[in-house]
Amino acid sequence: MKIPATSLGALVVAFVIAGFASCAYATDDAERRAQAEQARFRILGAGLVPATRLRAVDDLVVEDFVLTSAGTEVTGRAAFKAWIEAFQAKAKNVRLQAFETFANADATRVTSRWQATGINNGVLGTEPDGRPILFTGIAIWEIRWTADGPKLAHNWVERSAWELYQQLTAPAAD
Fold first, then answer.
1. Domain that holds residue 102
2. DSSP for 57-82, written as a single string
3. 42 sits in which H/E element
4. How much is the pLDDT for 31?
5. Tens digits of per-residue pLDDT, 33-55?
6. Which of 52-89 are b and which e, b meaning 16 or more Cβ less than 10 Å from the residue's Cβ?
7. Whose CA is closest to 21, among 46, 4, 2, 1?
8. Structural domain total, the chain
9. Tell me, what CATH number does 85's domain have?
């Protein structure tokens, strides 16, 4: 059985774009790592990038941004924004919790293990039944350090889509 492709990967990417705006340009690797890791936590506080904040994507990701999720690549800012909007239509009231986040030595990669919860409005092609959703994942971000500071260049996302699909297609508890 094929699980329908969705924009769950965009969920994680959406956390990133808000945090990089407040990151100053670092002068050494240790400072850059700390800023890259702190950006991840600022992102969690920013929420899931409501539609009114989608214009921030233009300032916070590079023009040739790529999202790689579930064997699919979404390339460019416009496609990324469309994917975020598609996810927001399928999952309501999403909240994320990061369990751990860390950057590599030169702060060009940030990795995070996370959990998302929300309300089903048709995630993974399921009926929009209002059931609670819960899934976990791991994301790796490529950070491109520019004269304007860090920008998101690429995001690789793996998440527990099969488990979420099973949860949403199981008979409802009475």
1. 8-169
2. HHHHEEEEEEEEETTEEEESHHHHHH
3. helix 29-46
4. 73
5. 666 655 544 443 333 445 556 77
6. ebbebbeebbeeebbbbbeeeebeebeebbebbeebbe
7. 46
8. 1
9. 3.10.450.50
